[in-house]
Write a structure and sequence with these properties.
Layout (H helix, E strand, L loop, with lengths): L1 H19 L13 E5 L3 H8 L7 E6 L7 H6 L4 E3 L2 H7 L5 E4 L6 H10 L3 E4 L7 H14 L3 E3 L7 H11 L6 E7 L26 H5 L25 H10 L1 H7 L6 E6 L11 E7 L8 E7 L20 E6 L2 E6 L5 E3 L20 H11 L9 H20 L3 E4 L4 E2 L6 H4 L10
Parallel strand pairs: 1-2, 1-4, 2-3, 4-5, 5-6, 7-10
Antiparallel strand pairs: 7-11, 8-9, 8-14, 9-10, 11-12, 12-13, 14-15
């Protein structure tokens, strides 16, 4: 059965690759890429309106909430409409690629189903809900040879490339500490409270059971949907999933951090089902090659890092950002992987290096072009990169939820000092929605 399944998957992947531009006779025009979107309201709707996706052939739209997706339905009147992604994948087999922009907990089930059907995938951030899902998605992407991309849009920008070039050129000497932060949660959504007891009627536009998907059954409440799910353990990954994928990305990319050795957290009051109102998480990374060991600290919910050395008097840190502390100086970047800026007088005699890293035409455009060419390496935040990156972030979630230091063994995918973490590293899925 396994051999038959692999053979079928390879055949499906081969057909998709030819349709998407991998074959010699395939068209390379962007408008020929047949794309479906799962999650057509909210962030999904924003993606479909993005200029980099403007000339895609949107052939199917899938959303559990017809009211949320109404604007996208009007924009793409010829696209077939679905509520269940499984039905869509079964009935629309000519699709080349799928955009996944749902709540975090459904990223992996949908993306895995799409890849098994031979479709390229663009998955909004964070990549997945659990560490096991990240690992499975990364392995499947490699096995199928499909083009993948996570929606950490700053990864396609000038800023993150310049940050890496600066650090590799020794702009601040050896980096030993990094501070990253975000104003979320609190501003964009609320978290840090118990499950509501009220059971209001489900809106007529919403298929609540499909929205729950793989999550345990619970009554509908507007504190989950729309747009308020991030702070709930069953549905989201909190501020780490929303903003660390942007604001910590320069550290992982420029320093080649890999998996952390350990993570520990200080937080606000804890709750059984909801993330606390604020978190300060310390990740510890081992030395690698010539790079020394690095501590990377994450702050959210209004908590901020210490004022960096060299920041001009009277200047405040932005509400999102990252700064690197090196042996010979400090470098500050804005949120969403913005360009670097040396603080103070900078390293004596340092001259900005020439640009050596290939620039991107756009984070989403590079995914489209990679799909058309059938070349996974063209999408720089593909799962080979974003899978391990998201895994590392989720080790911090273990520390938050268990309220203890986590000693992490990435090779074995285990918290060596916390066997109770196993239930969070992987999870149980409702029947019909697994990975």
């Amino acid at each position: 059965m396994k051999r038959t399944g692999r053979a079928g998957a390879k055949a499906a992947v081969g057909r998709s690759a030819k349709r998407a531009g991998g074959g010699k006779k395939a068209s390379r025009r962007r408008g020929t890429l047949r794309v479906a979107a799962v999650g057509a309201g909210g962030m999904g709707g924003a993606l479909l309106r993005d200029t980099e996706f403007a000339d895609l052939n949107i052939v199917a739209l899938c959303d559990v909430d017809t009211k949320a997706a109404a604007k996208s339905f009007r924009k793409f009147p010829k696209a077939k409409r679905f509520r269940d992604y499984r039905v869509m994948l079964d009935k629309c087999r000519s699709i080349d690629a799928v955009i996944v922009a749902t709540a975090d907990h459904m990223h992996a089930p949908i993306a895995m189903a799409a890849m098994r059907a031979g479709k390229h995938v663009y998955v909004e951030k964070p990549l997945a809900h659990t560490i096991e899902e990240c690992r499975a998605m990364t392995k499947l992407a490699k096995a199928t040879g499909l083009v993948t991309q996570m929606g950490n849009s700053g990864h396609g920008g000038e800023g993150i490339r310049r940050t890496r070039e600066f650090i590799r050129a020794g702009a601040i000497g050896a980096v030993r500490e990094v501070h990253c932060w975000s104003d979320r949660p609190g501003v964009w959504w609320k978290q840090g409270f118990a499950r509501p007891k009220e059971t209001p009627r489900v809106p007529r536009s919403l298929a609540w059971d499909l929205w729950l998907g793989c999550a345990p059954q619970r009554p509908y409440h507007p504190t989950y949907h729309p747009a308020a799910w991030r702070g709930w353990f069953d549905f989201g990954v909190g501020a780490l999933g929303d903003m660390a994928v942007h604001n910590m990305d320069p550290a992982f990319y420029a320093l080649d951090l890999g998996a952390p050795m350990a993570a520990e957290a200080v937080t606000g009051r804890t709750y059984r089902e909801s993330f606390p109102k604020w978190e300060i998480i310390t990740y510890e990374f081992a030395a690698k090659g010539a790079r020394p060991a690095v501590k990377c600290l994450w702050y959210d919910g209004g908590k901020m890092p210490p004022r960096p050395a060299g920041l001009p008097a009277g200047e405040k840190l932005d509400i999102n950002g990252i700064y690197f502390v090196g042996d010979e100086g400090t470098m500050l970047c804005g949120g969403w992987s913005a360009p670097p800026r040396l603080l103070g007088d900078g390293r004596k005699g340092f001259k900005p290096p020439r640009k050596t890293i290939r620039r991107s035409k756009g984070h989403r455009s590079e995914w489209v072009e990679a799909c058309l060419a059938g070349k996974p390496a063209g999408a720089k935040a593909g799962f080979a990169y974003s899978g391990p990156f998201t895994e590392a972030l989720l080790v911090g979630v273990l520390a938050v939820r268990l309220q203890k230091r986590i000693e992490w063994d990435s090779a074995r995918m285990k918290a060596t000092n916390a066997p109770e973490a196993d239930r969070l590293i992987r999870k149980t899925y409702r029947e019909g929605f697994g990975i």
